[in-house]
Amino acid sequence: MSAEDPAFVLHRGGKMAIVSTVALADRNDLSLAYTPGVPRVCSAIEADPSLVHDLTWKSNVVAVVTDGTAVLGLGDIGPAAALPVMEGKAILFKTFGGVDAVPICLDCTDVDELVETVVRLAPGFGGINLEDISAPRCFEVERRLQERLDIPVFHDDQHGTAIVVLAARRNAARLTGRSLAQLRAVVSGAGAAGIAVTRILQEAGIGDITVADSKGVVFAGRADLTDVKQVLALATNTAGHTGTLAAALAGADVFIGVSGGVVPEDAVAAMADDAIVFALANPTPEIDPAVAKRHARVVATGRSDHPNQINNVLAFPGVFRGALDVRATSITEGMKLAAAEALADVVADALTEECIVPSPFDPRVVPAVASAVAAAARRDGVALRH
Fold first, then answer.
1. Which residues are known to be catalytic?
2. Which residues contact 309 (CB under 8 A, 6 or more apart)?
């Protein structure tokens, strides 16, 4: 720890605080905000539970929940060390989406314990954002919470990444004069982000997609696959690749890296003309951007110091803003697809090789995504407020 390091200076004392939205200047204020005024409000909510959305902050607050097992590129660092990231996520919610968020770092990793703890916390929140929970447990945690709760549950490492990748992929395809259906993609990484990216690209109509993990291409019949990867194998790789990631890249139109591995330059050179490379590992992309630009027409990374940053902050504030605005009971596939399309459309009339997604600071982003998500929630029948 360095006293001069600006990161430590910024984090000293934490990055957030609770601020009252009402005045407490005199006895009358106190009597309304607490006793004897507050019991009347409690009784009203007891008689009509739906009033909790109007008479508390529930309609605008999200729990940002982690167990600290897959934090950024740091891995399993535990709940205490994960807290700065959760604080950061909370202030992004507030700054970009106007959504209040509370960091919750849980000292348990068992799936049953995680689910039960979040279910018990849920009455105080309008949504649950799962964060940095390692695969494959994250899939089970999300699925079970979605089954048990009547508020949106969203694992951002999966779906936030997938939404932004799909938006960027749509615009890269437009820029190169192709449709998604004409593209063959290879995904490096079969964890939470890789599986979610694969699924949303399939929902959107990608031509073909092959996924590789650290042991090579995921294909039906590979003996070492987990249950999740077995399902993935059956739904992908129609070309029948069985070898290495590098071999699968030969002639491919698209590379998407969410693994942190290294892809050799000759494999990139073997891709199709007008190739699209998304090397998203942080801080070191799977393919160095300078190398990628020698062979690909469009290059994106997860870094802010290169063009086309694939940043989840382009998605989750607007997704939750839209879901909370219509009091959605869940986040559907249709809502995710709508978010990606709206995000892509923000810069659709100004596309260049170095601008396929907007900046997180573009004021059009959150309103566009939120409006599209709210409309999709109504169409999908999960909106309680119209």
1. 34, 89
2. 300, 301, 302, 303, 357
Residue 2's pLDDT band (cuts 50, 70, 90): low
Calculate Rg over the CA atoms of the chain. Answer: 22
Distance of CA 315 to the CA centre of its chain: 7
Distance CA 65, CA 142 (A): 11
What is the chain's length? 386
DSSP state of 275: E
The 10s digit of each residue's pLDDT in 35-56 is 999 999 999 999 999 999 999 9
Contact between 209 and 236 (Cβ < 8 Å):
yes
**Cis amide leading into 49 (omega within 30):** no
pLDDT, tens digit (0-9, with 9 covering 90-100), for 306-326: 999 999 999 999 999 999 999
pTM summary value? 0.93
Domains and CATH numbers, the chain: 6-151 (3.40.50.10380), 157-386 (3.40.50.720)
